[in-house]
Amino acid sequence: MKVAVIGAGTMGRGIAQAFAQCDQIEKVYLCDIKQEFADNGKAMVKKGFDKRIAKGKMAQEDADKILNKIQCGLNEQAVDPDLVVEAALEVMDLKKECFKKLQEEIVKNENCIYASNTSSLSITEIGSGLSKPIIGMHFFNPAPVMKLVEVIAGINTPAETVEKVKEISVMLGKTPVQVEEAPGFVVNRILVPMINEGIQVYSEGIASIEGIDSAMKLGCNHPMGPLELGDYIGLDIVLAIMDVIYKETGDSKYRACTLLRKMVRGKHLGIKSGIGFYDYSNGGKVAVDKK
User: Fold this and answer.
1) Contact residues for 158 (Cβ-Cβ < 8 A; gap 6+)
2) What is the distance between the alpha carbons of residues 257 and 195, in angstroms, rounded to a whole number?
3) Would you say 127 and 98 are in contact if contact means Cβ atoms under 8 Å apart?
4) How far is CA 22 from CA 10, 101, 120, 209, in A?
5) Is 111 a catalytic residue?
6) Is residue 120 annotated as part of the catalytic site, yes or no?
7) What percent of the chain has a predicted confidence (pLDDT) above 90?
8) For residue 120, which of 190, 176, 175, 177 has the smallest C-alpha distance?
9) Catalytic residue (choose from 120, 122, 138, 196)
10) Which of 254, 251, 272 is nearest to 263 (CA)?
11) DSSP string, 178-234
12) Contact call for residues 19 and 3 (beta carbons, < 8 A)
């Protein structure tokens, strides 16, 4: 089986690694709009392997076997995949245009399945106007480790496609959960508003950054507090999901916190920008006062 992953960012490269680690997968095309983006995605996978090898947790030959399956290039290289997983930016028009070009100009396999890793957008809308159906195949970060895959059918997604994607998820060692199409699906519908509420609690001066995170870790047995988790996910992603849920439901309880929007505008996005609710610039993690 051949798989094409469109988008070599954090999620794309993680999804590519998850597929390449599976014995039943012959080849993984890791694609992006620039060759350097795709190459960097594979380099980050290799960097993670090198750390594990140095600690004696992975053999070099196993790493080489996985890396040799990953072929980097532009989207145009994805000519013959059996499955496409789109992991581009969470922008509706971009996703629609990406699938249109893949279906009409690039992919020659008539039996190819087209899946989106969208974390909140409508599968039905992504697939609107396309010649072939779309399905949601939502992985979680880090994709090689996290066991869940949300499988989401749009109104035009065939039942057999849903079953096939569930089978593929199991083949990867994941647990698929079939989800009805709804803004945010299951996990993000519950999780992201919790992060947003944690930001609101902080903005009201109820507790410090460390206090909020410690309270949720110790009081709810969460492995990470909501502000730390927001930094890990990317505060721009948190905001985008909140905006989608709010727009789709019209319910004010899903309105994004003003401080969250302010931080995203200021490029304080979390780990990926080096600063969010915590400062990661010196290799550590130090809370930063945002008020």
Assistant:
1) 133
2) 10
3) no
4) 19, 28, 27, 40
5) no
6) no
7) 97
8) 190
9) 138
10) 272
11) EEES-TTTTHHHHHHHHHHHHHHHHHTTSS-HHHHHHHHHHHH--SS-HHHHHHHH-
12) yes
Which position among 86, 90, 150, 228 bears the catalytic label?
150
Q: Could you read off the pLDDT of 12-55 as tens digits, one per residue?
A: 999 999 999 999 999 999 999 999 999 999 999 999 999 999 99
Query: From CA 288, how far away is CA 191, in angstroms rounded?
Result: 23
**Do 163 and 134 meet the contact criterion of CB atoms below 8 Å apart?**
no
Phi, psi of 3 (to 5 degrees): -130, 140
Encoded tokens for 35: 């060759």
Furthest C-alpha separation in the chain: 57
pLDDT digits (tens, 9 = 90+) for 105-163: 999 999 999 999 999 999 999 999 999 999 999 999 999 999 999 999 999 999 999 99
Answer yes or no: is pLDDT of 188 > 80. Answer: yes
The 10s digit of each residue's pLDDT in 158-179 is 999 999 999 999 999 999 999 9
Whether the CB-CB separation of 185 and 155 falls below 8 Å is answered with: no
Say which of 119, 120, 122, 196 is annotated catalytic. Answer: 119
CA distances for 266 relative to 8, 209, 275, angstroms: 24, 18, 10
How do residues 218-277 score in pLDDT, each as one tens digit? 999 999 999 999 999 999 999 999 999 999 999 999 999 999 999 999 999 999 999 999
138 is catalytic: yes
Q: pTM of the prediction?
A: 0.92
- 10 Å CB burial of residue 145 (0-12, 13-18, 19+) is exposed
**Residue 290: its pLDDT value, please?**
81
Mean pLDDT, rounded, for 203-217: 97
Given 117, 169, 188, 273, which residue is catalytic?
A: 188
Is position 116 annotated as part of the catalytic site? no
Structure tokens at 196: 């947003």
Which amino acid appears at position 125 of this protein? E
